[in-house]
């Protein structure tokens, strides 16, 4: 890319990154709403859960798109550096390298912030589930509560509800526990996607290097082929010149031979004429005798 076009891509990336950060903040707000609704035993509702699902999916799509932009910019930097190594002008390459590295760092920081936020809310959800379990089973030990939360099995809470005397809040607690378990599973999936995103970024950097090497090899081969073609053309030109020179030499020799033959013929004819002139008087004298 020309440098102005590259800088325009950087500007667009910065705008998209700001949008991604805003979306992450919206996800955090929905998590807070979920925690607040559970604390008040009002439940969260399928509509709000669907909204959180949609916002998390939007966040994931934005992160992947930003990753692709960073890799596109880095690939262009490598191509520009290869070009600069030939023409010797490294100014554009240095500018592009600086901007691309900053874009990568900014994206990594934003994604890590998202990851940190999701881990924090996962912990909060687990703490809340532990409190809910203690509500329905006040006699449970810390080990039992930790095992119930860690297992992620809502049946444990259902069994505790059956043996609990707090029937008035039983249904709301059961619903809240199911919703929080779904939130935890959603967060775990998001964290897995973020880990994969980082891996893909590193893998694509490794995969990009051989591609550049292949381009360089092809360029070298093309240069060698061009040099060979120029050599062959030079030899052909030299041969053509030599052929033209030999042609003129041969033509000159042919003309010279013709001239010599003509001279010889002329001499022979002249000599014959002179001989004939000398023989004619002698013949007439003999006839008279």
Description:
By secondary structure, the chain is mostly helical. It folds into 2 domains: 3-216, Methane Monooxygenase Hydroxylase, Chain G, domain 1 (Up-down Bundle); 240-289. The chain has 6 helices and no strands. Helix 1 (3-39) runs parallel beside helix 3 (91-136). It is rod-shaped. This is t-SNARE. Keywords: Coiled coil, Membrane, Transmembrane, Transmembrane helix. GO terms for molecular function: SNAP receptor activity; SNARE binding. The chain crosses the membrane at residues 248-271. It is a single-pass type IV membrane protein.
Task: Tell me the layout of helices and strands.
Elements: H1 3-39, H2 46-87, H3 91-136, H4 142-151, H5 154-162, H6 170-288
Organism: Sphaerosporella brunnea
GO cellular component, one term: SNARE complex
Family: Belongs to the syntaxin family.
Features:
Methane Monooxygenase Hydroxylase, Chain G, domain 1, rod-shaped, membrane, mainly alpha, 6 helices, 2 domains, 289 residues, 91% helix
């Amino acid at each position: 890319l020309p440098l102005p076009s590259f800088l325009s891509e950087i500007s667009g990336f910065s705008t998209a990154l700001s949008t991604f950060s805003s979306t992450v903040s919206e996800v955090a707000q929905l998590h807070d709403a979920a925690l607040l609704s559970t604390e008040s035993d009002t439940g969260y509702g399928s509509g709000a859960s669907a909204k959180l699902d949609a916002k998390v999916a939007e966040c994931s799509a934005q992160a992947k798109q930003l990753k692709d932009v960073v890799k596109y910019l880095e690939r262009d930097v490598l191509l520009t550096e290869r070009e600069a190594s030939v023409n010797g002008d490294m100014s554009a390459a240095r500018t592009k390298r600086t901007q691309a590295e900053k874009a990568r760092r900014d994206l990594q920081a934003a994604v890590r912030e998202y990851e940190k936020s999701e881990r924090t809310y996962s912990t909060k959800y687990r703490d809340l589930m532990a409190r809910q379990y203690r509500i329905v089973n006040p006699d449970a030990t810390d080990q039992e509560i930790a095992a119930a939360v860690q297992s992620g099995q809502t049946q444990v809470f259902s069994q505790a509800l059956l043996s609990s005397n707090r029937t008035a809040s039983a249904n709301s607690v059961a619903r809240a526990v199911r919703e929080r378990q779904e939130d935890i599973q959603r967060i775990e999936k998001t964290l897995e996607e973020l880990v994969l995103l980082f891996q893909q970024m590193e893998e694509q950097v490794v995969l990009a290097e051989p591609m550049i090497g292949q381009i360089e090899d092809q360029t070298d081969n093309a240069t060698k082929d061009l040099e060979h073609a120029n050599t062959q053309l030079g030899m052909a030109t030299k041969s053509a010149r030599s052929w033209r020179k030999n042609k003129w030499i041969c033509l000159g020799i042919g003309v010279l031979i013709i001239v010599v033959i003509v001279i010889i013929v002329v001499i022979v004819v002249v000599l014959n004429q002179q001989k004939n002139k000398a023989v004619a008087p002698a013949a007439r004298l003999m006839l008279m005798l």
